[in-house]
Amino acid sequence: MKKNLLLIHSNLRKGKGQAAAISILIFLAALLLNLWLMLSTDYKQNFDRCHDKMNAEHVTLAVDDDSEQMREFLAKAVENDERTSEFALGQVMLMVGSFDYNGGEVNSELVILEKQTAISRPVGKVEIVEDSDIQSGIYMPILYKSEDIAIGKTVTISIGSNKVSYPVCGFFNSVMAGSHNCSICELILTEDLYNELEAKGYAPRATLCSVRLKDSAESADYETALKSQVASQYPAARATSNSYELVSQSRYISQMICAGLMGVMAFFILLIALAVMVSNIVNYIQENMKDLGALKAAGYTGSQLIAALMAQFLGITLIAAIAGTGVSYCLFPFLNEMMISQTGIPYEIHFLPLPMLVSLLILGGASASAVWLSAHRIKKIEPITALRQGIRTHNFRRNHVPLEKTRAPLDFALALKMTLSGVKNNVTVCITILVLSLVVVFSGLMVENMITDIDPFLNLIVGEMADSCINVGAETEEDFLREMERDGRVEKVYLYNSLPVSHKGGLELMATVCDDFSKANNQDVVFKGRFPKFDNEIVVAAKYAKEKNLAIGDEMAITSGGKEATYIISGYTQISNHLGKDCLLTRAGYERMGECQNTSYYINLADGVSIEEFNSEMKERFGDGVNATINIEATIQGAASVYVSLMTVIVFAVLILSFMVVVFVLYLLVRTMLNNKKRDYGVMKALGFTTGQLIGQTAISFMPAVIISTFFGLILSSLIINPLTAAFLNGIGIVKCTFTVPVGFIIIAGAGLVLFAFGAACLLSLKIKKIAPQALLTGE
Amino acid sequence: MKEILLKTEKLSKSYSSGGVLQHVLKNVDLQLYKGDFTIIMGASGAGKSTLLYALSGMDTPSLGAITFRGETISDFSADELAVFRREHCGFVFQQIYLIDGMSVMDNVLAVGLLVNKDKKALVRRAKELFQAVGISEETQKKFPGQLSGGEAQRVGIVRGLINSPEILFADEPTGALNSKTGLDVLDVFTKFNEEGQSVVMVTHDMRSARRGNRILYLKDGIILGECNLGPYKDGDRGRNEKLSSFLSEMGW
Prior knowledge:
The complex is a heterodimer. By secondary structure, chain A is α+β, with helices and mostly antiparallel strands. Helix content of chain A is 53%, strand content 19%.
């Protein structure tokens, strides 16, 4: 043991720089690994903790009917289901409404509760997280806390053609209805204002049914069954609902993306750390062959020498990993703040031993394997051979680029010789650049399809987009359509309505009903097969189809309002609004089960027409005939701007980190090269090579690997980036991405990457300037 | 009248070692002539190699001037000195210092191509030189690690001569070789000197020193004495006695 400690001490003293380099890489890997594990494990579990703490419901159902019969019906239906653990019924107001947020507009099913009722419900209660002295006003979900929605400021809610404004008293947390991502968004009014709004009759009275289940895994099935019962008993009632399964996923999309990227980066850096570790050990053995022979001659066994290396590298790894995981807790508050603004669910930072332990095990295990694989050849060293002449580890069997024959200029030829004799360096460079190419292509993809122009991203995630959406009652529909045809500002109007249906033997699906899908703006919504044309055709979400083993051409039984109809699957869609539980039907197809009531029409307006003014005008013209108007552009902008800013931060962080890693890897390689070739550089300087020539040769020697791996890396990444992104977004129902790969951006980025690597290699090679030819005098 | 190639005026070189300034060369005034085989001798630490590397532009003096054909090279920048070395000097080192990753031929051509762009002529000259020092075609394809010490040093001499330098500097070229191989290498130096090549060699070996026509003895950083032996002739006893007497006079 004592012998080994002496060896470790001696090795560390000799290789301080190498130890520092590996420490930095492991530190970064540990930091990202721990953040990834915390985000993907405990952060997700926080939803369950919060859910349990507030005794939140697993299924929420709001029906625009607060009659005693409805209450009794719901109570009986819920009580009779043995999966129910407990439930609460309450009187609320339910309507489609909107309010301004983050430069855009939030449009959602709004459930308005009275404050005391909201905080005292046995199931599905809310928690006031910020309060004030304001006695009369509105409490908003904490997710919407922003510059414009702050305590004391006024929030205007649009309900149909009416608008109401209230001062903000505070903010609350609702696990199942605290965001527009939950299908239902709760708002709380103080008693006076609640009564006042109720009296105005802007929003229909409704019954809110919150059910807590014995097993949360049943939530989606339960929701489908309950809604189906309501629909069959009360076909005219408008019901809206959500389930634990939907909400627990939809509120964590950003966290999932962020965690995924961190995981990828962590393993990328770990891979580089391992490459550096292996390269260091191989160099160490090469350079210290005689010393190792001497130690063996003195009585050390091969295992002892390997154990010393193992202890040395594991020690460095564990110390750096503990520091990295520790520092991750310092960064976590910033990340947490960013995540809370996305999830809307508060998270209290606390020490998590498991992610830390897993991080340490991953890093320690990977390091130990790398050390073992690269150091086991120490066992083969024969002391006598090593002592006499050292063992030639570099066998120059081939004279690469013979100067006698090559036409290449001298410096270029010498650089090529260096390249071809440094296979390990080339492999390290290639791995680094290949991964970086993927990062560059991903960044390009995000810049092109999200940051500079968000439409492709929205087309994929949201599906159909238009300028305005107007929901009209059945009795107004004809007049409305006639008016639209006459109005010169309207370029296109088409039915595009979301209605809940149930797959018989399956789950509840959100059916998008359209009178003619060829009118839709986004013709990529169906990515395989075709849109439904006839009344017996359906398009189903690919993710759901895969889960239920449904192929194009198969039949599918759908129920709505207690009626059933069978459809042939004509294609797959991947709208992610309901996390892959969607289908598309023609109006005629849907009406085989029941009438479309309160239909939503999507409208494309001519350029320059104010959507807001148009919507207001329609509300005025048709009065109560218009149930709701949505400025789609503003709504999308509000929600999308958050994603865009998050993605911008991620793209910047990933790019900066990646380029830092490239510089770091090149630094290590150049430094190793300078150490190994210090004598050669001195000799070459003595013989008349200038510093500039040697720097050029060194930098150029990395370029073949950089250029080749950049070229193939960018091509390969461009080919796999869409499937990879689709795999990444699979959780939200995306199975195929068709983002435009920005060729121009990638070519420029590729050229930039090569130039950057060349510049970095030149700068890092400046140390050659310090190598003096006279160093040969002292044998340095 | 011999042509002066290199000239030093009050050449001094000092090093700081552990905070103590050591004056390795002190006001050395010296002239090196074309065609001479100059030997620099002295005890260990006398400053022989420091003088050699200062003269060859591999190191810069602390004080004083060095001129080559009237041009003051001691004022040159590092890159100018590199160009000076490649165009006017050749080097042979005690440790030989061939580049391990290059074949024998490439070790020579890498230096030759720095100056001579006519590759065909360069390869021809390299082959002539290899032949002159007894390096076979087969050996030219080998790597330094596959050569014997004598072969490696002969390759080192070819590398030093490839650009037809005006002065060939040699720092203890036989120091790492056995007796027989050392003699072979010295014969090569003598041969080229007889053909007109100027040579400056640092040695502390009598056998090597005998090959020179001019012996400079360095002690404590100053040139203590100089001895002219005339052209080398094998088996010249008088030459040996003259050298021995000079060296004992110098305290050797």
